[in-house]
Amino acid sequence: MDFTLHELACLDAVVTEGTFQAAAKKLNRTHPAVHTAVRNLEQRLGVALLDRSQYRVSLTQQGQAFYRQGEAILRQAAALETFCEQLSRGEETDLRVVVGDLTPAADVLPHLKRFFKGWPQTRLHLHFESIGGPWERLLAEEADLIIHHVDKADTRFEWIDLTNVTLVPVAARGYLDVPVTRQLTPEQMRAYVQIIIRDSARHPMRDYFVIKDAPSWTVADQHTKKALIVQGMGWGHMPLYLVQRELRSGKLVSLEGRHFKRSKLDIVAARLRGRPAGPVATALWRYFGEASIGA
């Protein structure tokens, strides 16, 4: 069946406006041109799409069925036109962002939502990675930007400070058989299961806070790690923002002391230094430079 987008657009205008005259005005066409386009469409289909017996035309039963399909084609055509305009302006159609496991997602995700609402034609590919995963993706140019902590002395990265995260060693109250004092030693803790995050990097580089030769369980994310620790199934270092409530209520106790200390990490937006960036990636970088993100 050979019909044109122009004919579909004329039919759509007549249906939405109610008259050929109003449709012609909406499309900036002449009344005869719109009438001819719809008539040609009906002749090709061999059915009457419009009921012209009243002042305001309406769809016939067959016309309603055809119009539903035609609306979908017009939407796809409009999206394709916008896509082509985006390509002609050099705007990226896809952007890859990796969020690290320690990042306070509740603080960061609303900013991504707000930004991409202003760039609706750019598709966000959002990935969540742990430990070395974000760095590996960025260095392999599999990400345009990461939100994670980085070695700020590494000149391969350029970064923007967003917030910071405090890590605290914790265990469920009653989990340890030894007194929880500031003199607690790694040797004493070697008998207890340590819950650690699995590095999502293909080639892990280092471990954090892991006691050598101690039994350990690995999990994929901080929320699972917290759940196991709260249930008394192990201990580990947790972001303070995730366990503040449990520490206040007494479900968890801090193991901080001479040997187990809290630490603070800067969460940054990072990209590869010197790597060309398109308009959308540049706008996102500028957005994070001006954003106020609280821990």
Automatic annotation (TrEMBL):
<protein>
    <submittedName>
        <fullName>LysR family transcriptional regulator</fullName>
    </submittedName>
</protein>
<dbReference type="InterPro" id="IPR005119">
    <property type="entry name" value="LysR_subst-bd"/>
</dbReference>
<keyword id="KW-0804">Transcription</keyword>
<dbReference type="InterPro" id="IPR000847">
    <property type="entry name" value="LysR_HTH_N"/>
</dbReference>
<dbReference type="GO" id="GO:0003700">
    <property type="term" value="F:DNA-binding transcription factor activity"/>
</dbReference>
<dbReference type="Pfam" id="PF00126">
    <property type="entry name" value="HTH_1"/>
</dbReference>
<keyword id="KW-0805">Transcription regulation</keyword>
<keyword id="KW-0238">DNA-binding</keyword>
<dbReference type="GO" id="GO:0000976">
    <property type="term" value="F:transcription cis-regulatory region binding"/>
</dbReference>
<comment type="similarity">
    <text>Belongs to the LysR transcriptional regulatory family.</text>
</comment>
<dbReference type="InterPro" id="IPR036390">
    <property type="entry name" value="WH_DNA-bd_sf"/>
</dbReference>
<dbReference type="Pfam" id="PF03466">
    <property type="entry name" value="LysR_substrate"/>
</dbReference>
<dbReference type="InterPro" id="IPR036388">
    <property type="entry name" value="WH-like_DNA-bd_sf"/>
</dbReference>
<feature type="domain" description="HTH lysR-type">
    <location>
        <begin position="1"/>
        <end position="60"/>
    </location>
</feature>
